[in-house]
Design goal:
Blueprint: H1 2-15, H2 22-59, E1 75-76, E2 80-88, E3 95-104, E4 109-116, E5 123-130, E6 146-152, H3 155-166, E7 181-185, H4 191-199, E8 204-209, H5 212-221, E9 230-234, H6 237-246, E10 251-256, H7 275-283, E11 285-295, H8 303-315, E12 320-325, E13 332-337, H9 344-361, H10 365-368, E14 372-375
Parallel strand pairs: 7-8, 7-10, 8-9, 10-11
Antiparallel strand pairs: 1-2, 2-3, 3-4, 4-5, 5-6, 11-13, 12-13, 12-14
Length: 376
């Protein structure tokens, strides 16, 4: 190598000596210029590629090289772009779901939402997108943007997340979550379980989703991952719970946010609101575990009656149930424990303090600042 460098230096010294003919020096200069150009053509793309890889790895962004080539395929207006609509054969009647990126001008943020066709103002899932440096919603193809899984945009999802930390089933110290397990019935866009996957990576998460179309959308548009700590099973949640009870499988957390097409009381789906299902859910809980459930009844004369009936069902099987009141949402998150509390009043005070601490440490303080938990 040293000999080659000396030879190269000798070439340049000889080529540009003043006693060389002018034509020879011009020829040498042209050769040097071509050498530099050739070096740039060969090496520069490699350098740029390496730079992009390192940059993406370090900052989590995708260099938006596809803008202008694939963006026209989307149907868009000034503040939103619809990427895809896909229909599910599992629902009766058939339901179609759309993936839409929406620009919120008040917050100057971009969100990706999953909505059912015909109910465009009601979102199945909402996640925030991370804006790459130097780009914005108007001049970029947001399909290449990354999902910010640590940003929760739904108040009821945030309350469901905080509940296991509030009652002490999950710990804010991740080392304490080793070997902790969670069964989540209902995937949607995966915002809930992907948040926990990011902030509590030691928790082993199994998600059950009935509709393979929803799983496909979650993988393609919402950044849902599959690995040893998080997996998605396409199955009926009722069957999974029943089989787990038969096999004596247990979980620290059972999360239930699965809905049906009932216009008056969609969540949880009617099939989950029965004694035998609740009995099986209790069977698959570990002694200090908890079940977290989302209740949703639409406004109307029977709303309170439906909610009260569901709460009474839970109370008939669990010694302790605590519900959340959400000022911005009709959803009612409920957490139930398979064990009794010696002093419910002092325990509730402790839970409220834990809830405030968990909200702050999980980055959910703003969205949960007005949420109140009360005993059922």
């Amino acid at each position: 190598m040293l000999r080659r460098l000396k030879s190269l230096r000798r070439f340049f010294c000889v080529a540009f000596q003043s006693r060389q003919p002018v034509g020879q020096r011009v020829k040498s200069a042209i050769c040097l210029l071509l050498l530099i150009i050739g070096f740039n053509l060969l090496v520069s793309p490699l350098v740029c590629t390496v730079f992009n890889i390192v940059y993406n790895w370090a900052f989590g962004y995708v260099i938006d090289e596809n803008y202008g080539r694939i963006a026209p395929e989307s149907v868009s207006n000034r503040d939103q772009v619809k990427h895809e609509t896909i229909c599910s054969s599992r629902s009766v009647p058939e339901s179609c779901f759309s993936v839409v990126d929406h620009y919120d001008s008040k917050k100057n943020e971009v969100y990706r939402v999953l909505c059912t066709e015909g109910f465009d103002d009601e979102y199945e899932t909402m996640v925030r997108l991370r804006e790459p440096p130097g780009l914005d919603f108007q001049n970029s193809d947001t399909r290449t943007w990354k999902i910010d899984h640590k940003a929760i945009s739904s108040q009821y999802i945030a309350a469901l997340i905080a509940a296991p930390f509030m009652v002490g089933t999950l710990s804010l110290h991740n080392a304490m979550n080793i070997r902790k397990t969670m069964l989540n019935i209902g995937l949607g866009g995966g915002s809930l379980d992907m948040f926990l996957y990011k902030v509590a990576p030691e928790v082993n998460i199994t998600v059950v989703e009935l509709d393979p179309t929803m799983v496909e959308l979650a993988h393609r548009w919402f950044g849902v991952v599959e690995d040893s700590h998080r997996r998605t099973i396409v199955a009926d949640g009722i069957d999974v719970i029943r089989n787990a009870a038969k096999k004596n499988m247990t979980y620290d957390v059972v999360m239930l946010d699965a809905c049906d097409g009932n216009r008056m009381f969609p969540c949880p789906a009617a099939v989950f609101r029965s004694d035998d299902v609740i009995v099986n859910i209790k069977k698959i809980l570990k002694p200090m575990g908890c079940v977290v459930m989302n209740l949703l009844a639409m406004e109307g004369e029977t709303m309170e009656k439906e909610i009260d009936t569901a709460l009474e069902l839970l109370k008939s099987h669990f010694p302790v149930c605590i519900k959340a009141w959400l000022p911005e949402d009709l959803n009612i998150p409920v957490v139930c424990l398979p064990y009794a509390l010696q002093n419910s009043d002092s325990s509730l005070i402790l839970y409220r303090k834990r809830f405030e601490k968990a909200s702050a440490q999980l980055g959910l303080r703003d969205i949960l600042k007005d949420v109140l938990f009360r005993s059922v």
